[in-house]
Amino acid sequence: MTTNATLDRPPAPDSGAPATGDRPRRFRPRNLWQTVGPFGVFVALFALVAVLQPAFVGGGGLRILAVQAASILLIALGQAMVLHVGSIDLSNAAMAILSAIVLALTLGPLAGGGLVVSIGLVTVIGAINGLLVAFAQVPSFALTLGTLGIVQAASLLASDATTVYASGNSELLAPLFGTAIAGLATAFWVGVLLAVVLWAVLRFTRVGQGMTAVGLNETGAIFSGLRTRLLKVVAFTISGFLAGVAGVMIIAQAGAASSFGLGSDLLLPGIAAAMVGGTAITGGVTNPVNVVFGALTIALTPIAAAAVGVTSQAQSLVYGLVIIVAVALTMGRNRNRIVK
Questions:
Q1: How far is residue 289's CA from residue 248's CA, in Å, rounded to a whole number?
Q2: CB atoms within 10 A of CB 275
């Protein structure tokens, strides 16, 4: 006889194989997108640019692209980790600017200690975001929108609403963009390495698998005994940390920071890169390695848009269309689920 406990028990995690008597899963375009789509889109877009603007490819275009994608990649990876648990972080790009400003102010007097201060500060802000989302039950969209305003105000105050230049010890950051591996800036490879680490965390660790469970079915994760609140805090903390590293890249590249300079427009490209990289806005589906190709694609998008005659003023329109298409391809749908 079937008991109520049996009926209320959450479904067991999917093992990847169809259960006995179940029909085989039908192929869905969304599944193809999440596996090879990001790489394929980047290759197709790069080929288009190569045909329309051969001088870009011949003139070291891939090297330039890697430089432009370095900061976008870090913001996108942080965004992907938060999206993975079913939330969103609208403040991580602003945190990157704050980190860059703090680093510019402290690199001279503190040397390597400035790195610790700048990255540590925004990592703490990310953790606070996570604590408020998890324990105060504040919706992540509203919370991080508020944090965005607070962090922007802090950046203006810290910089006195002007450009802040790194006054000393710049040689500590010089190798990030002054040296190359396989022809691409070391800064880009730092992002790739972090993407691989995050991929391994999600795939092989209990914390990563727990984050996936939260993103796929938070109610089921709670019934399974997972510490869902802690896992959300971890996701937001990672986002803050990666924003701090992005701030380091801004100083390494430009030697200065301001609330309106390099990196001030990373939010929309970062979200777009995460989604083009196959991250589902509904949560639970993320491949950080694919986010690398998402970042490269987004960095290449303005160049491709210019090649086909789209003006620079319309770039936000292009990013918006990219996000809409990426969301349509990555989100899951079934008859019993309501799309909000």
A1: 21
A2: 29
| Class of the domain covering 55-329 | mainly alpha
Q: Which residue has the tokens 């007097």?
A: 109
Give backbone dihedrals phi and psi of 185, rounded to 5 degrees, phi first: -55, 140
Alpha carbons 9 and 193: distance in angstroms, whole number: 40
Alpha helices, H only, 206-340: 206-216, 218-223, 228-254, 267-276, 288-307, 315-330
Q: Are 173 and 108 in contact (CB under 8 A)?
A: no
CB 316 within 8 A of CB 268: yes
pLDDT for residue 10: 44
Give the E-state strand segments of 135-196 in sequence order: 164-165, 180-181, 184-185
Q: Which two tokens stand for residue 331?
A: 């989100």
Q: Which two tokens stand for residue 313?
A: 């003023």
Calculated CA dihedral for residues 195, 198, 199, 205, nearest 10 degrees: 170
Spatial neighbors of 105 by CB under 8 A, at least 6 apart, are 114, 158, 164
Tokens of 306: 């210019």
Using one digit for the tens of pLDDT, what is the confidence trace for 249-295?
A: 999 999 999 888 777 789 989 998 999 998 988 899 999 999 999 99
Question: 0.90 exceeded by the pTM?
Answer: no
Structure tokens given for 326: 């990426």
The pair of structure tokens assigned to 161 is 């609403």
pLDDT reading at 209 higher than 60: yes
Exposure string of 160-197, with b = 16+ CB inside 10 Å and e = fewer, is eeebbbbeebeebbeebbeebeeebbbbbbbbbebbee
Break the chain into its structural domains and give their ranges.
Answer: 55-329
170 three-class SS: helix
Residues 267 and 182: their CA atoms lie apart, in Å, by 29
Q: Residue 103 belongs to what H/E stretch?
A: helix 92-110
